[in-house]
Amino acid sequence: VPSHDKEKYNGFMACATIHKGKIVISTTGTTNSEYAEWAKVEILKTLDVDHLDSEHTDLFEIIVPQDPHIVAEEFGAIYIGMRNKKDGEYRAQGRLYLNTLGQMLKELQDVKHEGFMVYTEDGRCCKLKSPYYLGKKFIMRSNAQMVELMYDASKGFSYCNRLDARWVPIVRKITCDVPKEQWLQLTDQQRRAIIEVYEKEYW
To answer: What is the pTM of this model?
Structure first.
């Protein structure tokens, strides 16, 4: 029987542990990148350092204004669990309730965040991403080829078939109100701002 936590947060992951008596904070593959520095600032703001030990690695989702993603989140370091260094056992933080996969997939249809982390009783896990998140990401980050399909009235159905139906009127509104050449020049975050104006009306 799987369970899920409150939600899958939309940031980047960082780790903290004690190594040779010192706190080590890292992101994927590095301890000295810009992202690792951002993580260090946020983790040390809220972390009870006495909680750390050399036998476990604590995991966090880091959300900072310097690294905007797809959906809005509250900034900071969110504790998501710990992993035992010796045997790899992972203990997740924030599980809410036991549920069936079918019930979770149904609930997923109406959330306006990234989705859920799902854990089984034997320790396996996976991500469930919401139609809201996947559609918004697709529209925001469509490459030039996809934008051509998006704006081509005869082929637009091909583009929209990749989306939850609730995104279709938003796509239609964008293609009517924003010239294609302008949309092509926008950054993903500039596109996000436009999408969020139409979301209020249609989603």
So the answer is: 0.73
- Phi/psi for 200 (5° steps) reads -60, -30
Q: Which of 143, 197, 141, 142 is nearest to 170 (CA)?
A: 197
User: pLDDT tens for residues 22-48?
Assistant: 889 999 888 989 999 999 999 988 777
List residues bridging with 17 in a β-sheet. Answer: 24
Q: How far apart are CA 85 and CA 149, in angstroms?
A: 48
The length of the chain, given as a count of residues: 203
Tokens matching residue 71: 């959906």
CB 171 within 8 A of CB 160: yes
| Contact between 123 and 99 (Cβ < 8 Å) | no
Residues 6+ apart with CB under 8 A from 30: 36
DSSP string for 112-141: SSSEEEEE-TTS-EEEEE-HHHHHHHHHHT
For residue 186, give the nearest of 156, 160, 150, 159 by alpha carbon. Answer: 150
Provide the β-strand partners of residue 92. Answer: 81
